[in-house]
């Protein structure tokens, strides 16, 4: 019989999400509030009560310079970048690990089979090619299968427009020129001015689209030689962080008499320096990586006289990494392959509701010079799952149960479930509640990392599991939207890498944790201004080993308070946008002795219309020149300025004279 302990912890967590607030607030100062883009429309059923949808207008008018920065303005999202452009950047949701967040691009997962996480620096998708981002917080394995423990981030890219259009953009990024120290000890010298900082990085972007296709390409290079302070307090220049990257995509759509066929192809290549941390620098480390993705989609809603809709999505992916730590060390190479098929049905039944169901099949394979499976073979995984999610309407109430069965070849099969309840007080106001289970499969690195270099994988690992719940109250009007809710998640068997008695780092199902919290977000219009704010309170508890709630230990890198504030204004010839994000201090160990201080990061963007077909944009990142680290040992850039010139062409709609 299964233990009821997770349910007890979950109920306790939902109470702690409210009861712990006064105590936590006494530790900090009053903060600025935050951003919200758009909440889920009421005519959609959300399996998670904590859902934020960022629409295209909010994406294009945001002051965020890139996709990770934009996501950091969403409640519950914690960003973990390790440097400037090209450096690894991952996210967590409501305190989850980065491996517990499922990332989808146009409906297809893009998590790395080797590491189990998504490095947003490798996606290579420009912001102007994204038309919508859905961030669903909470356990969603009943809908999506493995890895959706903290939630799901779904990125939708552009697929054409009614009119023929094209644009070209040229961008230059500058850091503040400043004096830096070169060398160490008696040989150290001070260089008073580093002029190359003014032309640190450049990029060229091209895009074109019409009614049936959208194509884009981007080429960029950056030295990423921003100034930072070392452990001795001396200002130095970040070295071996250079980037050369190219990416592109092509999306097509072909309307049929009874549906639509579409395709999406994306490729990317990068050559990037890996500087390492301040404690363990890698001045010669270098990495080359590439990705290629192809997805086909068939959609129709013409079955059973329009009562049944079908969607089929076959896909194939490949990606490679070539890493060399020094010029004299061996080269590590990894190539991953993924192929699969996702299918879903949506049926309008005789009762008031909807029935969603589907199946998915996926094959993952890793060919690596380092990571080997049993007997030296290439690690591979076959996965399959089926799910059903009916909804039942009873007046102003809607019940949404969901059930999914998943099976794989390398760990036991399992069932994930969720139950959602929605009550509409009016057309503008609703309350949502969800309880769900979720799990994450161990990655190939977790299972098969070789016994070398002071580390070794563990083929006996079990999947991580969690049970979560949330309740939210949402109100939506044309000029104002707000939402407030509480949530909790109890995670079991969290995979943790730690040294054994011999000093060898090995993963084990060691970690347990409780994550109670509160989220609030709002967006409103004030004249010509669009304003947004959000706040997240997350009082996590480490429950691993002999630790209990009474030990009051925070989960590393999970801030108690996070907030953001956004503002944008658009006139005929001028646009302005501002974004402020705040995080309270974050402990870096489970002992809660070492920590990273609180941060307040400000970004701004100003855009002038030079003519009917040209724009000039200034983007200010880290406006206050904040000196900070998001991950210990990896200094982040200070103030930087990007200047962009964009030329546009817009033709007539097909069929027009």
What are the key terms here?
single chain; 657 residues; mainly beta; Maltoporin, Chain A; 22-stranded antiparallel β-barrel; six-stranded mixed beta sheet; 6 helices; 6% helix; 54% strand; disordered N terminus
Q: Would you kindly provide a written description of the structure presented here, covering whatever features stand out?
A:
The strands form seven sheets. The protein has a 22-stranded antiparallel barrel. Strands 1-2-7-8-5-6 form a six-stranded mixed β-sheet. With 657 residues, the protein is mainly β. The termini are far apart. Strand 20 and strand 21 form a beta hairpin. It has one domain (5-650): TonB-dependent receptor, beta-barrel domain (Maltoporin, Chain A, Beta Barrel). Helix content is 6%, strand content 54%. The protein contains six helices and 39 strands. One of its GO terms (biological process) is siderophore transmembrane transport.
């Amino acid at each position: 019989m299964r233990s009821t302990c997770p349910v007890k912890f979950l109920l306790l967590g939902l109470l702690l999400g409210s009861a712990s607030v006064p105590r936590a607030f006494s530790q900090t100062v009053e903060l600025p509030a935050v951003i919200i883009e758009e909440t889920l429309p009421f005519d959609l059923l959300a399996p998670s009560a904590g859902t934020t949808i960022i629409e295209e207008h909010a994406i294009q008018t945001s002051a965020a310079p890139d996709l990770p920065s934009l996501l950091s303005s969403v409640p519950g999202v914690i960003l973990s970048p390790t440097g400037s452009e090209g450096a690894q950047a991952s996210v967590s949701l409501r305190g989850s690990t980065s491996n517990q967040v499922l990332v989808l691009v146009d409906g297809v997962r893009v998590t790395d089979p080797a590491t189990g996480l998504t490095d947003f620096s490798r996606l290579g998708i420009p912001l102007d090619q994204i038309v919508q981002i859905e961030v669903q917080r909470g356990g969603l394995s009943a809908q999506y299968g493995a890895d959706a423990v903290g939630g799901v981030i779904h990125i939708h890219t552009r697929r054409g427009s009614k009119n023929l259009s094209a644009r070209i953009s040229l961008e230059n990024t500058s850091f503040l020129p400043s004096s830096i120290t070169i060398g160490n000890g008696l040989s150290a010298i001070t260089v008073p001015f580093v002029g190359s900082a003014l032309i640190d990085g450049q990029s060229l972007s091209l895009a074109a689209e019409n009614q049936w296709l959208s194509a884009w390409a981007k080429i960029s290079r950056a030295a990423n030689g921003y100034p930072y302070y070392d452990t001795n307090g001396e200002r130095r220049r970040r070295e071996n962080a250079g980037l050369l990257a190219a990416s592109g995509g092509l999306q097509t759509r072909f309307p049929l008499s009874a549906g639509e066929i579409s395709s999406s192809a994306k490729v990317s290549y990068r050559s990037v320096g890996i500087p390492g941390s301040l404690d363990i620098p890698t001045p010669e480390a270098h990495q080359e990586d590439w990705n290629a993705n192809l997805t086909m989609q068939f959609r129709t809603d013409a079955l059973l006289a329009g009562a049944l809709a079908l969607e089929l999505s076959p896909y194939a992916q490949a990606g490679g990494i070539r890493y060399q730590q020094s010029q004299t060390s061996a080269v590590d190479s990894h190539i991953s392959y993924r192929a699969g098929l996702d299918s879903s049905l949506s049926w309008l039944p005789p009762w008031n509701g909807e029935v969603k169901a589907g199946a998915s099949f996926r094959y993952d394979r890793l060919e690596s010079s380092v990571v080997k499976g049993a007997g030296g073979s290439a690690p591979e995984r076959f996965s399959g799952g089926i799910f059903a999610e009916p909804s039942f309407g009873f007046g102003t109430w809607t019940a949404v149960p969901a059930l999914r069965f998943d099976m794989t070849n390398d760990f036991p099969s399992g069932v994930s479930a969720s139950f959602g309840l929605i009550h509409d007080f009016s057309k503008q106001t609703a309350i949502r509640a969800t309880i769900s289970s979720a799990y994450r499969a161990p990655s190939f690195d977790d299972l098969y990392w070789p016994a070398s270099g002071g580390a070794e994988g563990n083929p006996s690992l079990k999947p991580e599991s969690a049970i979560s719940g949330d309740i939210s109250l949402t109100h939506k009007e044309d000029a104002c939207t707000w939402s407030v809710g509480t949530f909790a998640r109890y995670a079991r068997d969290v995979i943790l890498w730690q040294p054994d008695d011999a000093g060898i780092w090995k993963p084990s199902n060691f970690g347990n944790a409780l994550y109670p919290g509160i989220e609030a977000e709002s967006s409103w219009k004030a004249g010509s201004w669009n304003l947004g704010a959000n706040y997240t309170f997350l009082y996590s508890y480490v429950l691993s080993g002999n630790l209990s709630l009474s030990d009051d230990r925070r989960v590393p890198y999970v801030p108690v308070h996070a907030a953001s504030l956004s503002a944008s204004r658009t006139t005929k010839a001028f646009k302005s946008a501002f974004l402020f994000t705040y995080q309270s201090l974050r402990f870096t160990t489970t002992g809660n002795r070492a920590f990273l201080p609180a941060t307040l990061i400000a970004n701004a963007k100003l855009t002038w219309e030079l003519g009917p077909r040209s724009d000039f944009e200034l983007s200010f990142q880290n406006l206050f020149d904040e000196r900070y680290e998001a991950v210990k040992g990896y200094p982040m850039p200070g103030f930087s300025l990007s200047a962009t010139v964009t030329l546009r062409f817009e033709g007539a709609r097909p069929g027009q004279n």
